[in-house]
Specification:
Function: Ligand for members of the frizzled family of seven transmembrane receptors.
Family: Belongs to the Wnt family.
Oligomer: single chain
Number of domains: 2
Largest sheet: 3 strands, mixed
Bound molecules: 2-acetamido-2-deoxy-beta-D-glucopyranose
Number of strands: 9
InterPro entries: Wnt, Wnt_C, Wnt_CS
Subcellular location: Secreted, Extracellular space, Extracellular matrix
Radius of gyration: 26 Å
GO biological process, one term: muscle organ development
Length: about 400
């Protein structure tokens, strides 16, 4: 009897666990929360709290040490939906990389937007991480989805190469020792991006593939449209990682002659991914969700299209088709100028700005025309340092005075 039960598929075993999961998490908790808090320590071997009728399933889990361990790791994670907990149960060693991927994505977002009105700030006390901005469906929403999805693909791939995961290693597809027509061999450890991409699809995309229970047709349609937007941006983020994959080669042979060359593929630094995604953010395409359920299309009033749509060939010119690598959004961005606590928008008051610059960080743009305050700030530094024989350094202290401008 016990034997037969062990053969049940994982989701069935998980059911009692999931049903009992506390429903404390705030509305729209999100897996990205792992990027803020990391992976919490595994649950203590929870004694089955005197429940009714659910003890049986639990016993089976505890019979199997691997399952018990997976449950201890995956059972306590904040922000995950059921399908993501299932992925965790199947690959418990990967959960650290998922958290690392989210962390990388959030950190890169904050770096890329450090000078802008919206600076990608997060809320550590909310499992939704970005709150309203993640719900909005604007360009910023698109960037967040793309960069965190890319982060997971990147971190999981790196963990594969580092031997940290049980289910993957170097790319097996190109590790065989065949010589290519160009006369070099694949060698070393090529990063297994294929695995990282698949993993990101499975885990990061899961919430978009989970239909809401709500019977309200309007809510369902809205969910479907947003799901399509999110899936598109998730994939665009992953595609950026793919497009930046590099080949490295090393020469072998007597005194530097390149008789034999071995080559392998490596991941780009994540900052390169961030740079390219930021460029895509600037050119993000606004879409409308119409014409059936499957198609997305560019919203026709495209500000970049110029005004000569009715001219010769105009229609086709401005209606550039949507490409897989574009970031897409449905709604316009709020202006982010004014504090709006209900939506978690901090506003730009108090932000440091550049009086002379002309970019996003300029006081003109960042302060939204409200003007700025000027403070004189003193910097005290060690300076004129001298090396004294032997062996210490003497320095003077220098004071510099600078103006610091902050938005009103
Ligand atoms: C974003 O700006 C706010 C001020 O508006 C500041 O408090 C916060 O630390 C900044 N966040 C980041 C991530 O730079
Ligand atoms: C639009 O067409 C008019 C002539 O029909 C031309 O003078 C104008 O420069 C064009 N504008 C753009 C943005 O191409
Ligand atoms: C302000 O912008 C100017 C020109 O872009 C730049 O040279 C300067 O270093 C910036 N100042 C600060 C404090 O960032």
């Amino acid at each position: 009897m016990g034997q037969a039960r062990l053969a049940l598929p994982l989701p069935v075993l998980l059911l009692p666990l999931l049903l009992r999961a506390p429903t404390t998490s705030a509305a729209n908790a999100n897996w990205m929360y792992l990027g803020l808090v990391g992976v919490p320590p595994p649950l203590q071997q929870a004694a089955p709290s005197g429940g009714s009728g659910e003890g049986e399933g639990l016993d089976v889990i505890l019979d199997d040490p691997e399952l018990a361990e997976a449950r201890a790791v995956c059972g306590s994670l904040p922000g995950l939906i059921g399908a993501q907990t299932n992925v965790c149960m199947e690959h418990p060693s990967a959960i650290k990389s998922i958290a690392e991927g989210a962390r990388r994505g959030i950190q890169e977002c904050q770096f890329q937007f450090r000078h802008e009105r919206w600076n990608c700030s997060t809320n550590e006390h909310e499992q939704s991480v970005f709150g309203y901005i993640l719900e909005r469906g604007s360009k910023e929403t698109a960037f967040i989805y793309a960069v965190t999805s890319a982060g997971v693909a990147h971190a999981v791939t790196q963990a594969c190469s580092g031997g940290e995961l049980t289910d993957c290693g170097c790319d097996p597809g190109i590790s065989d020792q065949r010589t290519t027509p160009q006369g070099w061999k694949w060698g070393g450890c090529s990063d297994n991006l294929h695995y990282g991409l698949q993993f990101s699809r499975k885990f990061v995309d899961a919430p978009e593939r989970t239909k809401p229970n709500s019977g309200d047709p309007k809510a369902r349609k809205q969910f479907a449209v947003r799901a399509r937007m999110n899936l598109h941006n998730n994939e665009a983020g992953r595609q950026v990682v793919s497009s930046l994959l590099r080949m490295h080669c090393r020469c072998h042979g007597v005194s530097g002659s390149c008789e034999l060359k071995t080559c392998w593929r490596t991941l780009p630094a994540f900052s390169e991914v961030g740079d390219l995604l930021k460029r895509k953010y600037r050119q993000a395409v606004q879409i409308t969700a119409s014409r059936g359920r499957r198609r997305m299309r560019r919203k026709s009033k495209n500000p970049r299209s110029g005004s000569n749509q009715s001219n010769r060939g105009g229609r086709n010119k401005w209606k550039r088709s949507l490409s897989k690598g574009d970031l897409v959004h449905i709604h316009k961005s709020p202006d982010y100028c004014v504090t709006d606590p209900a939506r978690g928008i901090a506003g730009t008051s108090g932000r440091a700005c550049n009086k002379t610059g002309s970019g996003a960080q300029s006081c003109d743009l960042l302060c939204c025309g409200r003007g700025y305050n000027t403070q004189v700030v003193k910097h005290v530094e060690r300076c004129h340092c001298k090396f004294v024989w032997c062996c210490y350094v003497t320095c003077k202290t220098c004071e510099t005075v600078m103006d610091r401008h902050t938005c009103k």
